[in-house]
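Supplementary Note 3. Input sequence used for the single-chain structure prediction.
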Amino acid sequence: MTTEKTTCSKIKIILVEPAGELNVGSIARVMKNFGLCDLILVNPQCDRLSFEALKMAVHAKEILENAVIVDTLPEALTGCTRAIATIGRDYSGELPLEKPRHAFPWLLAEPEKPTALIFGREDRGLTNQEINYAQKLVFIPTNPEYPSLNLATAVSICCYELSQLAENFITQKTPTTETAPLDTVEPYYQELESLLLAIGYLYPHTAASRMEKFRHLYNRAHLQTTEVAMLRGMIKQVQWAIQNYNSLENSGL
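The predicted structure, written as discrete structure tokens, is reproduced below.
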């Protein structure tokens, strides 16, 4: 097995609501060109097995046939420990924008665990809520006078960058830690938001923006599975204490 397959084979290419059959077929082809095979389509708006898609895929038809179809981005990220979203340069949020060759080594650093590279819709990219599921953001530098890239072209550039980094990538021996899969962390965010709303720290009309800041904070920490379990246990204990306090107040004790 080559170094490229060892480091790249577990990276999932996720397309959110792709609408172009030609694009999807071309993406399957370029994935095979660079040693990737896991394609996930979130609520696709086209038929991945149409004549046009299969024609563009050429010898990568099995990638289209084996593509996983899911309804939501969190479903697509099930089992992944790291995720990078690709967006345009006009992003105005808090996460820093990185170039692919600067961010992708982080994606390759856990070659034995599934990771993900997320691409948005052809016409409007990813929503702010979808961006929040990623830990890092990348943009592809283009001519400012004509910055827009075709979806298949963007995926091609990213697959090429991954393959070049993987070819020379040397995994450093560090103490083994189990980074929490993203679908393990997500329930914690939901429980935290419910608790903070209940105690009045969050208000419904500002909860989304506040929780975005908490997500950024925890993403920088790269939580381990045991740490997520500890945090969820803490929330459950706080909820228990609140409920028991309320019971005592209601009983007049």
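The chain has eleven helices and seven strands. The two ends are 69 Å apart (CA to CA).
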